[in-house]
Amino acid sequence: MTCNENLNKVENNELIRALSNRKLLMDGAIGTMLQAKSLDENDFRGNLFAEHNRALIGNYDLLSLTNPKIVKLIHREYLVAGAEIIKTNSFNANADSQAKYGTEDYVYRINYAAASIAKELCDEFQEKSGKKRFVAGSIGPTWRLASREISNSNSICDENIFKEFVEIYFEQISGLAAGGADCFLIETVVDSVNAKAAISAANLYNDKIESAIPIIVSCSLTQDGKLLSGESQSEFYEAISNTPNLIAFGMNCGFGGKHIAAYIDELLSVNRHYSIIYPNAGIPNQNGIYTDNKEESLEIIKHCLESEDIRIIGACCGTTPEYILNIS
């Protein structure tokens, strides 16, 4: 079910029309796939950053600029597996997270490239099959928690802190939109204030354009079922439920399918928008390898397919195209 009174400028959007008719399958992890390729420093640098004065290994978002063929290959594998929604390789492509690598001045270009790569492939697959594919502009948390910064500050500064986070997200959102994102996916929400800043940035961008880009929000809950900032899933949803152009709300990542399954009933009981679920493949071991609960998570995802109320289903950390193929 979706909140028609707050759709505003996205009522005739293709993604809205698709969701009103059927479930959509989203892809799985991008980071897991990139990590498996054992890339070295030169792979991250490319020609653009050959003389860069900091190490760039581990900056996977940067690959959209420096090694787009690898990113494109992963998107293609997920599309072949049956995914209808592809997340951009931009989870950490914000100025706050990129500052660690000294690449904060390239945020817009990274996001534009990430969305363009995904859009090109979605258009290619749509042309071949006649079936629309969608690009979800991935917007993850920054490395800082806005709620923590505000709680530690003088209240006079609260507005300035929030404004800073809105500006950080607006730059990312602008690049994703220009590159062809079909929706803004504010995902792995652990801090409510960060998410509200991202939502504000998306609203600011949508105010500037004729046909708004839909917004999707997905939380990552702690083991006690709350955000790190302390709110329950229900409390956070009620705080953002009147967001213009919000079309879907749900959960991703977490501690695997079983953990997310424990909070699905809560989600469905309060959610007046379409629901989205994409758990990770269990909990990684000390080497970062996802060896636990993969089948359990897969069963939860298949169970979600049976629910009419859950419209977007996919997978998160530790998953692969084979995982998505088993769902489709």
Question: What would your notes on this structure say?
Answer:
The structure is a single chain. With 328 residues, the protein is an alpha/beta fold. The chain contains 15 helices and 8 strands. The protein has helices at residues 14-21, 31-35, 41-45, 63-66, 68-81, 95-98, 107-129, 146-151, 158-179, 192-208, 233-240, 257-261, 264-270, 294-305, 321-327; strands at 24-25, 85-87, 134-139, 183-189, 215-219, 246-253, 274-279, 310-313. It has an 8-stranded parallel β-sheet. α14 (294-305) links the parallel β7 (274-279) and β8. Residues 1-5 have low confidence and may be disordered.
Q: What descriptive keywords fit this protein?
A:
328 residues, alpha/beta, eight-stranded parallel β-sheet, 15 helices, 8 strands
Number of strands: 8
Largest sheet: 8 strands, parallel
Strand order, sheet with most strands: 1-8-7-6-5-4-3-2
The number of helical runs is 15
* Percent of residues in β-strands: 5-15%
- Characterize the overall form: globular
State the helicity in percent bands.
Answer: 40-55%
Tell me the radius of gyration.
Answer: 18 Å
**Unreliable runs, pLDDT <50, ≥5 residues?**
1-5
The helix-strand sequence is HEHHHHEHHEHHEHEHEHHEHEH
C-alpha termini separation: 23 Å
